[in-house]
Structures are given as C-alpha cells and as structure tokens.
Write a structure and sequence with these properties.
The complex is a heterodimer. Chain A is built from 15 helices and 24 strands. By secondary structure, chain A is an alpha/beta fold. Chain B has one domain. The chains are: A alpha/beta, B mainly alpha. Chains A and B meet through helix 3, helix 11 and helix 12 of A and helix 3, helix 4, helix 6, helix 7 and helix 8 of B.
C-alpha cells in the first residue's frame, strides 16, 4: 500500500465526490455551462458555507460558485510552497493599492475558513453597542445574536481549548501575567485536534471545523451544486432585480479566464465573496448605489508584528498557532478614542517568518538561523470607530479585478507605535533576550529602555512599517438607512429585491476580534430569514 | 525620515510613470518576440539570478554544486511564483523587470553600473539597500516585491530548512 493511493485519514471530500456529489471544476469545461437554481451563492467561505447549508436544509436548490480550487485533507501536506499559491488569493501576496499592506485571504473551497487559525470570538459587546448608539443600527445587540452564536458554536465545535498552549502562546500569557494585565484562552472551532500547528495550510486531519468539512458537505449531500475555479463577473440587473449571474471559467492555474462561460439563473442571489470580492462584484454589475457606499469603509484590522528571541526553544511552527490573546489595549481604550489593538501570537513557519523579517543578506540570515527560538506577537488594530479611521475603498482595475486602496493615516500610526511598545514590553516580561519590532531595517533591542526609546522615535511610514491583514471587513454595510447602508437589516440589497450580501462585507466597522464567528452568526441569522422568505414565496406560488 | 515635498513627489511620480510606461512598451515588445513561455523572460531571469546571492547572503550554501543548485532552484521558484500571480500583478512586475533590464534603467534607476550578470555583490547590495530605504515609495515597494519573491522562494525549499532548525512538517503516519 502506498500513501497516495490509500489516505490514512478519512477524507470527507474525496468520499463525497466518489458518492456522486454535484461538483464541477470549471477549468475542465469543454463547453459553456448554464445552471438553473433557486439560489446562486457567490463564494464558499464563512458566509457562503453557512448560507448554503441553511438554504439546502430548507429544501431549496442551491448552487455555490467558488473562484478557487477544491482541495481537501489528502492534499493538505503542510507545505508553505504548496499552500500559499493553491489556497490563498494572489498566492498570499495580495496587496493594497500602494503595496503597503499584505492581505491574507483564502481562495479555495471553504474560503478563509480552510486556512484560518481557528480563533473564535463572539462579536465584542462594545462593537455592537457602537453600531447601535453611534451608527444607529438597531436590533444587533448581544441578546438578539446570542441564539445564532450558540447555534454556530454547536455546529462547529467551538469550545474552550483544553490542551496547554504551545511555547509561543504561553509566552504571551506569561508576559501578560508579569505585567499584571489580562490575557485569556482563545476558543477554537476544532474537534479532536492533533495540535500540529498547520491550520494556515489547510487542516490535514479534518479537525478544524471549517466550511470545507461541515456546512458545504452537508449542502452537497442535500443536492447542492458546487462549481469551482469560476469567477463571478457580473450580476445582470434588470429594473430592481438581478436577472442572471454571468461568470467565467478560470484556467487550471486559477488566475486567468478561459473562453468558457458559466451563466446562472436563480430566483435569488447571495454575494458571499468576502469584503473585497463582494463589493467588487456589485461594482462590476453596476448595482444601484445612489449614496456611493459600495466598497467604501473597508476595514482590515491592520496588523503589525514584533519578533523576539527567547533563551529556550519556542518552536513556533509546532502546536495550535493561536490559543492566547490579550484585549488589555482594547479594553482600556474606548472605541471613539485612540485606536486600540488586540494582541495575539502568530505561527512561525520558515516562509512566513522569512518574508516578515525585514532586510536581506547576512543580518536576515542570522535572524532566520534562530528560528526555533523566535517568538512572534501580532497586534491587530481596531479600525473604523473614529472619524480619522474611515478604512479603505475597493475599486476595479481595468481588467475588472479588485484592488483595495487603504490610506495609512497618522491616527493609525499612533496605534502602531503604541502596539510596538506594548508587544516589546510583553516579550521582555516573558523573558526575551532581544526584541525586534518588525519595521524599517529590523533593528533589535536587548533592553526594554532601549526598545522604548527607539520605538518612540521610529519614523513610521507606509512601506517602512510593514503591515498585514487577515481580516477584511466592510464595504457593503448593513443598516436600515439606504443613505448609510448597502443592505437592509435582513441582508437584502437596499435597491435590488433578490440580492443579499452575506459575508464579512456586512460589517459597518471592523469587529475588533478575529471575525469568523461573527460572520458565521450573521450568516446563520440572515440565511434563516432568506430561507423563510423564499419558502413562503414557493408555497404561495 | 521621509520629508519629500509634495512637488518633489509629483516630479518623482511623473518621472517614474514615464519610465514605467517606456519599460511597459519594451516588456510588451519582448513578450511578443520571446519564444520561451515562462512567467519571467530571459532578462528578468538574469536580474533575479543576479539579485539572489545578495538577498540570500549568509543563507545560500557557500560554494560548489550545492550553491549552483540552490541558485537554480530559487530562480525557478521565483518564476513559478510569478506565474501564479494575477495578470494585473504580473504585468506590474513585468514593467519593473523591463525597466531594470534597460541599460539606462539599471544605471540611473537602480544605480548598478555593471550589466546584471557581471555586477558585483557589493553593487547589488548597494542597490537593494538604496531601494529599501528610498524616500520614494515606489522603490520601497519594488524592494518589497523582490524581497518577498526571492526570500519565499528559498525558504520554501526543504534544502533551506536544516540551517534554520526547521524540522519540516510532522509525519502524520508517526502520529497515528
């Protein structure tokens, strides 16, 4: 027996395909494809996955379109060289328009949920309160959402993580305790997790309860259709309705359109392509947008990195990547003031570490030579709660592909400076011998005083201070007022009767926490409403 | 510290845009005439091959057949990575390489006096350092692109792992 012929870990996707799921890889089409369905869903991530299962359970005929490939546990070999080009948008090198922020977004069946690090938080109450009080969005308080959080937590195995954190995360906990600030364990969407540490490259054991192994297989088993490597180009709008969806097949490399077209006619359409993809689809479609809101106020949780060396081995490539967090610098700042940030650990695999370390040549190689001792913290900045934090704008290139323009403001850099200082304090408190705030040419410091002095004087600037984002949010905000929101409180487009948006683009600000559970809960709530509406109309007809 | 005036930025931006437009035209012409169907044309491959030893100084094997193989594999991996980028981003990179491939672009824009294949490690390193710390954001973004492409290409290679103490992915068979 050999490994490739007989996977030792049961692969529910390969089993489903063998059992006859209706899955089409559009890169293999030798003719155009026309599809009829009750509902067409663009995107198979957190929003599209939950929506697909909910609607399929309601007896509706669902088709899901996904730009990326279908890959599953047998394919997930825990190699960065394979995972980043295969499973991420633009080979994990998607950038903002000025190239100053690197955006990590999934592009595969399951979307971001296939490659995220499993961190699961309910939407923070302070965020919901800001939406209600400052933005005038009613009905999204904790009580209204609680049943939907509970439902998705049960569906996806979201529970306290009982296994000890790896050394990388334990150091965050230790540093916070030394400083006398709060840190806590992160809940994770896993079942029987092997604690390997490779969540970002696709879970090889199917422990992670991503859309790939939960909602999508359930929908497919109920007869849903999945088309992969297909790019939704435009919704054809006639009057106040979407008449059809026009899509183009991609080549096997997944970057270039082929001559094959896919057309979907459905009663209802759901944009679930993420907070860059969904606004871009609406923009390409010329969807009515009298207030000019589509693609604006797009948020990123702009994230900066602090690397440190520990005397002991950290082996940050091993063990669940994100299990401890500190909200001290969110909880001590009110959302309308200077920007707060969430501190978490990040996995330390060779490519991710090497492209994050500034500079090149001998100095870079010396840091890389200490990889097993490297401790890495990240600070995710809460954006969108202040007039000087208006986020970015999704626009279209000449070829119709989207690009996000996200200006980095002095308000943002003020938070960056505080974040570098906070992370250095945590790392020295945890016992680091050397701390390198990842910026400029990568200067490292061996004392807290030296680090504090230098950080205070850093000439922070775009493309001097690298930023990353794994959380794209906003661009199609939810709300009752068409002058301020793209979709109404049911997720329905304010100007198109049969179009819903159900993904992270709904959020009117950033979440202030890793957003997957927020998307799951919103999707469960809105898709449930959509299923009821479509069911009633079906019965009435 | 970045203290360029708005006027200087505008001038630099316009000059850069003009240079890129010329280079873009050259890139288009080269693509039409270059028979090798690769993401990087011959000139771009030569530039990457010239940059790799400086970018990865201290990381690549010091000499011999190991070094040659590491160089070859890194250039090939950069080529594969570029092939996986979107057409829009590939086009931008094509413009950058076309500009660097022009003698005047190399000398004036990058400040590298010798042809790429003959440039010394010192010349290449000076070019990289100058672009990394340039007051002009476009040059810094180009440095970042070269940094990301070359460094990812090497550290994705299992040959790079022993020197950094990375044991590679765990074996699922052993864990069972």
């Amino acid at each position: 027996m050999n490994d490739t012929a007989t996977p030792r870990i049961a692969d529910p996707i390969r089993a489903g395909l063998a059992a006859g799921w209706d899955v089409v890889d559009a890169s293999t089409l030798d003719a155009d494809l026309a599809i009829d369905a009750d509902v067409a869903i663009v995107g198979s991530g957190a929003g599209g996955g939950v929506t697909a299962e909910t609607l399929a359970l309601a007896g509706l005929k669902v088709v899901v379109l996904e730009e990326g490939p279908l890959r599953s546990s047998t394919d997930f070999r825990m190699r960065e060289a394979e995972a980043y080009p295969e499973l991420y948008q633009e080979s994990a090198a998607r950038k903002t328009a000025d190239k100053a922020i690197n955006i990590l977004q999934g592009r595969c069946v399951g979307g971001g949920t296939t490659v995220n690090w499993t961190s699961s938080f309910r939407t923070p109450p302070v965020t919901l309160a800001h939406w209600a009080r400052t933005l005038g969005i009613p009905g999204l308080d904790g009580d209204a959402l609680a049943p939907w959080f509970a439902k998705m937590e049960a569906r996806l195995g979201i529970a306290p993580w009982e296994i000890a954190p790896n050394v990388n995360n334990a150091a965050l906990s230790r540093g916070a305790a030394k400083l006398g600030i709060a840190s806590a364990a992160i809940r994770r969407n896993v079942r029987a997790c092997w604690n390997l540490g490779y969540c970002g490259m696709g879970c090889p054991t199917n422990a992670k309860q991503s859309m790939l192994v939960t909602t999508l297989p359930a929908a497919l088993a109920l007869g849903a259709k999945l088309v992969t490597r297909v790019r939704a180009e435009r919704l054809v709008v006639v009057g106040d309705r979407v008449d059809r969806l026009e899509a183009v097949a991609l080549d096997p490399g997944g970057t270039t359109p082929t001559a094959r077209r896919v057309t979907v006619r459905a009663r209802s359409y759901v944009a679930a392509a993420g907070a860059i993809g969904s606004p871009a689809l609406l923009l390409r479609s010329g969807a009515p947008d009298p207030a000019g809101l589509t693609g604006r106020r797009t948020f990123l949780h702009p994230t900066v990195v602090s690397a440190a060396l520990m005397p002991e081995r950290v082996d940050g490539f091993a063990g669940a990547p994100q299990t401890i967090y500190s909200d001290h610098w969110l909880d001590t700042l009110s959302p309308g003031g200077p920007a707060g940030f969430k501190v978490e650990a990040a996995p330390v695999h060779p490519v991710l570490a090497a492209i994050t370390m500034p500079g090149h040549g001998e100095a870079h190689a010396r840091w890389m030579g200490q990889l097993p001792h490297m401790h890495v913290l990240i600070a995710l900045i809460r954006d969108g709660f202040h007039p000087e934090s208006a986020g970015g704008t999704v626009r279209l290139r000449d070829d119709g592909t989207p690009v996000l323009d996200y200006p980095q403001t002095p308000y943002l850099f003020d938070a960056v400076r505080r974040a570098f200082a906070a992370m250095a304090e945590l790392q020295f408190a945890a016992g680091s011998t050397s701390v390198m705030p990842v910026q400029g040419r990568g200067e490292a410091f061996t004392t807290r005083a030296a680090a504090a002095r230098a950080i205070g004087a850093f000439a922070l600037a775009p493309l001097v201070t690298p930023m990353v984002s794994a959380h794209v949010m906003g661009g199609c905000p939810i709300g009752p007022d068409p002058k301020r929101a793209v979709v109404d409180m049911t997720g329905r487009h304010h100007h198109l009767a049969n179009l819903h948006v159900i993904d992270g683009s709904l959020f009117p600000t950033s979440i202030g926490a890793n957003p997957q559970l927020s998307i799951y809960a919103f999707a469960a709530k809105l898709a449930d409403g959509l299923a009821a509406t479509l069911g009633q109309r079906a019965r009435g007809a | 510290m970045i203290d360029l005036t708005r006027r200087r930025l505008l001038q630099a931006g316009l000059a850069g845009a003009a240079a890129l437009a010329v280079a873009g035209g050259v890139a288009w012409f080269r693509r039409r005439t270059d028979a090798t169907p690769r993401a990087l044309d011959r000139d771009a491959q030569e530039i990457v091959r010239a940059i790799v030893p400086a970018m990865l100084a201290g990381a690549l094997p010091a000499d011999g057949a190991d070094r040659t193989r590491a160089l070859d594999e890194t250039v090939a991996a950069v080529d594969r990575a570029v092939a996986g980028l979107s057409p829009a981003v590939r086009a931008e990179l094509g413009q950058l390489f076309a500009l660097l491939a022009l003698g005047i672009g190399r000398r004036v824009f990058a400040g590298v006096p010798s042809p790429w294949a003959e440039a010394s490690r010192g010349e290449i390193d000076a070019f990289l350092v100058a672009w990394q710390s340039s007051a002009w954001a476009l040059k810094r973004s180009a440095y970042d692109a070269l940094h990301q492409l070359v460094i990812a290409a090497w550290y994705a290679n299992p040959r790079a792992w022993p020197a950094v103490g990375y044991p590679g992915p765990p074996s699922l068979a052993v864990s069972l």
